[in-house]
Amino acid sequence: MRYIDHAAVVKRMNSRMIVNKLFKTIFFLATLFALLALGILFYRIISQGVGYLSLDFLLNFGSRFPEKAGIKAALVGSLWMMAVVAPVSLILGVGSAIYLEEYAKKSKLNDFIRMNIANLAGVPSVVFGLLGLTIFVRALALGNSILAAGFTMSLLILPVIIVASQESIRAVPNELREASYGMGATKWQTIAKVVLPSAIPGILTGGILALSRAIGETAPLVVIGIPVIIQFLPNNLLSQFTAMPMQIFDWAKRPQEEFQYVASAGIIVLMIFLLLMNSIAVIIRNKFQKRY
Amino acid sequence: MALNEQTAKMSVQEMIAKQKGKKGKFWVEKSIPIILFLIASISVLTTFGIVFTLIFETFEFFKRVPFLDYLLGTEWLPFSNNEPLYGILPLIAGTLKVTLIAVVVAVPFGLASAVYLSEFANDKTRRVIKPVLEVLAGIPTIVYGFFALTFVTPLLQQFIPGLKIFNALSPGIVVGIMILPMIASLSEDAMTSVPKSIREGALALGATKLEVAMKVVLPAALSGIMASIVLAISRAIGETMIVSLAGGSTPRFDGDLTGSIQTMTAYIVQVSTGDAGYGTTIYYSIYAVGFTLFLFTLLMNWLAHAISKRFREEY
Amino acid sequence: MVKLNVNNQNGTNGNKANQKVTDSGIVYDTRQLNLWYGSHHALKNIDLAIKENEVTAIIGPSGCGKSTYIKTLNRMVELVPSVKTSGQIIYRDRNILDADYGVEELRTKVGMVFQKPNPFPKSIFDNIAYGPRIHGIKNKKTLNEIVEKSLRGAAIWDEVKDRLNENAYGLSGGQQQRICIARALAIEPDVILMDEPTSALDPISTLKVEELVQELKQNYSIIIVTHNMQQAARISDKTAFFLNGEVIEFDKTDTIFSTPSDKRTEDYISGRFG
């Protein structure tokens, strides 16, 4: 006797295929939801903000009057902050990654460092703000300066840079290290001349993406007490300053409807900035596509 | 072979030997690991810095406010002139409302996207959708907050007449959109790491793609999917700018989603943008709230870690 | 350390063969070498005396320790954590297993060519100049000469002389391997270790590398690990047969392949196992 009735299987197959098709469509529509959300968000912001976008908007300081408000101080402030964050976070991040991948032996201490980095990545940014407020603003008496904000942001994105750098260092094939050691190179020579040059595109890509997160991050700046109304440009690292997301936050909170449009214009500037950074990251990624 | 005088006279090994006298190399090799170790320990110092800062200032707070009043109090009225009250529960309620809504939005859409991308989509679709998710994940939260306040809330008000300008629903939905890419891409990673051979085994028996996805791939990737959801919940709990802009500043211990609320993060922002002086109870209260928030997210991160470690599949 | 008597018995043949030549032109004298990966005993009481300006082949089935042995000769084996050794390897009158023997110094004198061609993702010129540069030779003219001489030495100069600034990854596998040989030649080593250098190459490239080995032996001592017995027979003067971490037999290549004295050598050569 036969356990499987093939005629019945074939008959059921039709309905199973219909269910399959139905769910495929449902899943596809659900996936489109993200696309839709992104589309609406971009459309709203561009249609609201583009009218307020002008050369004046880029060259004016903040103002009580929406038509006179500009993003100059915030744009320049963000750039100054990046001038701190980029070197600090890259040196700390890449240095940590080299240590963990190339030097750290399997020990309790190093396991602890690794676990710690994973946990640090999950700490909310607003809590980093509290750290910055206590340590940099108050204990080290840097005040609400570019330096204090830059250090706080560097620590915030440090785990991201470490992990990205670790991945690109790990992707360098061991054969290359062996070849270098085989020539009598020392460990540091091997790292500096063989491992890092091969890993640098990956490190830069990850680093730029992390920096673009720092540029858009608002909460730590709020907690540190970065002011909004600034009518001058910073001239040193201990200057007070404001940053683009802070400025947008302030405009978005204002009751007058016009400021919504100003906020949208500010968001457009911020997003163009992020887009530029991301494009650079993509270009680096494609240009130095690994060949080994 | 054209060799010049110098090379002819001196072999490479001799030239190398001549360079040996310099001792610099030795000290570089000795000091680099130490320097790098010190750099790597900065991340540990950061964690200690966070924990000690929070504990220290929270301790100050509990000198002024009884611990049990904080833990069990159902009213959070720090700005009251005659009798300030510091019961954390309303802030936790606000955080949980937003998180819950976010999960309700993000989990179905995120998982559906993950299944679609990993099991159904062709390469072309994937090449369009994945960058979209990356862009969504890279949008600053302040932009999402603005979107919630100026678009989602007015839109919802057309369907829900009683909805206030500040409410839990709108930021909840937008936080959901924000964490959606995280769930989608982490779950997709978990699903694509299920070996092809297992899928092919099921397909060869006559299973449809849906049956393979639901009965083979999803169960095999379950721990990775659960971990991604828990991580996303942790992100939602710590999210600050969306709830600050669109959630309001009314701490309430109830289940209402249509009225103004306040989350833990939004309270910290409210105090930071106000003029609470250094050393006041209100000043210390942001550390107590920050510490509570930190514990919540830490718990979630550990849970995610434990899930993915405990149920790690061996293929 | 527990000495395995069985091994010593089996090793006797090899030892006797070695004894005859001990005094003249020995480049590497291995004495009672043992090596462990953690608790795995990978090399057992190895005794082997390798002569200058000869090609010494090391053959044996996978996992017999032949690769481990050649990597011990320039201490690359230490890149694997948890490696322990005992015994001696005398290279030019000094025991290289001494803790105070600088590995960098050793590897400057002993070049190595690996299983898979592993050029650096740099230009051909920079690949060859890598060794001289890390050892402090910076003079551009000198480097030019070293690069040309090394590429000529590796019989690849004519193929690449017009594209020295191109990335070495653009070359074919066989060319890459000869670049790697040239890279090893650039520091004018005393000995060249080759760890299955043709296992990733096609037959024609293999032939070229084999011819090159024949030429190089005029000036260098070469130790080559190979899983290919014909190759050992074609290019080597001496052959050592490894099995389960022991040297079963070490003798003139002709002798090994015509009249091996150990049954297991005979079995391996005639293809009964491995």
Task: Describe the structure concisely.
The complex is a heterotrimer of chains A (292), B (315) and C (274). By secondary structure, chain A is mainly alpha-helical.
Architecture overview:
The complex is a heterotrimer of chains A (292), B (315) and C (274). Chain A is an all-alpha fold. Chain A is built from 11 helices and no strands. In chain A, α3 runs antiparallel to α8 (187-216) and α7 packs antiparallel against α8 (187-216). The radius of gyration of chain A is 25 Å and the shape is flat. The mean pLDDT of chain A is 91. With 315 residues, chain B is mainly α. Chain B has helices at 5-9, 12-19, 24-64, 67-72, 89-120, 123-138, 141-159, 169-192, 196-204, 209-220, 222-238, 241-246, 264-273, 281-310, and strands at 76-77, 85-86. A two-stranded antiparallel sheet of chain B has the order 1-2. In chain B, α3 crosses α14, α6 packs across α8 (169-192) and α7 crosses α8 (169-192). The longest helix of chain B is centred in the N-terminal third of the chain and has 41 residues, at 24-64. The radius of gyration of chain B is 28 Å and the shape is flat. Residues 1-8 of chain B have low confidence and may be disordered. By secondary structure, chain C is α/β, with parallel strands linked by helices. Chains A and B meet through α1, α3, α4, α5 and α6 of A and α3, α5, α6, α7 and α8 of B.
Salient structural properties:
heterotrimer, A: 292 residues, mainly alpha, MetI-like fold, 2 domains, 0% strand, C: 274 residues, alpha/beta, six-stranded mixed beta sheet, 10 strands
